[in-house]
Amino acid sequence: MDNQVFKNISKIIERDAKTATYKFALLRGVIDIIQDNSPYIKVKDDIVEIPLGLLIEKWLIYYFPIFESEVEIPQINGKNIKVAFQSHFKPIIDHYAIRGKISVFYNELRIRGIATEINLDFYKLVQKIKETITTMPMRYIGRSISNDYYSIFNYSSAKFKNDKKQNSQWLVDGCGIFTVPKDYFEAFKILGSFISGTDNILFKWAEFSVNASGKVLTTGRIVNEILKFPVTERDVEASKKLYIEILAKNGSVSCVWSGSNIAKYDIDHMLPFSIYKNNDLWNLLPSSPPTNKSKLDKIPSLNLITKQKELIIHYWEVIHQYQTERFMNELQISLLGNYTKNNWQQSAFSQLLQTSKYLIETRGYPEWQY
Questions:
Q1: CB-based contacts of 165: which residues, under 8 Å, 6+ apart?
Q2: pLDDT tens, position by position, 1-33
């Protein structure tokens, strides 16, 4: 990888023109998708293709708490000037204001689908975000290092329908793809956590909003809003309770890591929630309390996961039997990607191994051996 790529990224962050937070949101979104190790990412020669819908989903999550905030957090320079899609967001925020706010919105987007009564409003919002991403930051990012438009990112559109089932898969299927040069993809993959961490993107975003507010707001307050995550402890506990209820119907329970029969058990995030931020049912597995305590926030080794393959898939099939739609929706987005749902067990397990390897070898998280 050419060191010039890293220099270019630094120039883009520091020197590219900034009139709104779009650039920060685009870079953060791309980095987050890469750090998620999305199964939809396709490497083709010297470019990498990524569904634009995944990026739109990130923007929905980033901007929801900002626009929902009781205190205005400016996202664009200029008095009383609003972000292009801010007014489109209002009916969505209003709808969820009395229904659990961003957490319920995120759960419906990922699992059940957006409520039918706001389908048209949500469709218009997604269209506007798509238009904003592709005509603003994607067009102009890289102008500090090149005179060309779309010098780093490019996109290919697709026919987008206002379907009744509006969820994450709908976004992936209907919004087309965007591309990034492979060198930049590799740089984001290796250094993404530093680029989008508190040393750079998020604080640059916060600093922008502080200055745009005339320094009325504080960096800390803005960062707190920007960093809100849609999955709360309450959501985690609800999923664990559901899992326990299903296991109770299934009879005996074995620790997924040791294979031993256990009377008492914890519901463990196979890929730790603190690292992977994933509360999907496929990522929740029964473990003996001592084993769970030993594992903590470590990543199970590839050898251990392979050794316990049969038991992992067994629990997946148990959950699939009782929560088919939710389980498969979550599995498709996180592990299956474009793979067919036929023989989903093998395809999902292969991606699980790849994600674990990525977290251990590329991102450097500690490996755990039972």
A1: 113
A2: 577 888 888 778 776 777 889 999 999 999 999
Show the tokens assigned to 113. Answer: 């689908």
Cβ contacts of residue 303 below 8 Å, gap of 6+?
369
Q: Rounded to two decimals, what is the model's pTM?
A: 0.79
Query: Are the beta carbons of 351 and 336 closer than 8 angstroms?
Result: yes
Length of the chain: 370
The ranges assigned to domains in the chain are 3-226, 233-368
Interatomic CA distance for residues 120 and 114, integer angstroms: 10
CB 325 within 8 A of CB 280: no
E strand map for the chain: 42-44, 47-51, 154-156, 177-181, 266-269, 284-287, 299-300, 367-368
Closest CA to 72 of 228, 226, 217, 223: 217
Ramachandran sector of residue 21 (left: φ over 0; alpha: ψ -120 to 50; beta: rest): alpha
156 by Cβ neighbours in 10 Å (0-12 / 13-18 / 19+) ranks as: exposed
Compute CA distances 361 → 8, 75, 137, 324, 337, whole Å: 25, 36, 32, 33, 22
CA distance 184 to 153: 10
Neighbours of 9 (CB within 10 A): 20
In angstroms, the CA 327 to CA 239 distance is: 11
% of the chain exceeding 70 in pLDDT: 97
pLDDT digits (tens, 9 = 90+) for 78-116: 777 889 999 999 999 999 999 999 999 999 999 889 999
d(CA 353, CA 351): 5
